[in-house]
Inverse folding.
C-alpha cells in the first residue's frame, strides 16, 4: 500500500491490495511538516516517519474496499503492531517517506 501525495497536495492510496509494503511517496520538495499539513486526518510526524491513522486510510479508500480487504488490512495492522509500528493507542500506523522526482 502506497500513499502518494502529488505536487498539488492531492492524497491517494495506490496498490491498496498490497499489505506487505506501507509507505508514503511525495515530491522531493515536501518536508515532513508539509506532508503532515497536507495529509491531515490526524497524521503526525516523529523521527522522519509519518504516523497515519487507520481511519484516514479507510477514508481515503471509501468505495474501494470489501470484506476481503478488511481482513488483509487487519492482518497488516496486526503485523505492524507486533513490530512496534503502531502507536500506544493503536490508532496510528508508522510509514516511512520516500521522496520521488
Amino acid at each position: 500500500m502506497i500513499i502518494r501525495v502529488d505536487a498539488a497536495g492531492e492524497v491517494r492510496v495506490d496498490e491498496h491490495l498490497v499489505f506487505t509494503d506501507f509507505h508514503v511517496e511525495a515530491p522531493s520538495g515536501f518536508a515532513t511538516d508539509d506532508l503532515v499539513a497536507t495529509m491531515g486526518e490526524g497524521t503526525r510526524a516523529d523521527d522522519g516517519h509519518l504516523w497515519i491513522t487507520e481511519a484516514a486510510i479507510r477514508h481515503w479508500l471509501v468505495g474501494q474496499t470489501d470484506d476481503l480487504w478488511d481482513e488483509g488490512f487487519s492482518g497488516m495492522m496486526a503485523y505492524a503492531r507486533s513490530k512496534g509500528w503502531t502507536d500506544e493507542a493503536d490508532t496510528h500506523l508508522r510509514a516511512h517517506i520516500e521522496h520521488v522526482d
Observations:
- Strands lie at 2-5, 11-14, 23-27, 44-46, 49-53, 92-100.
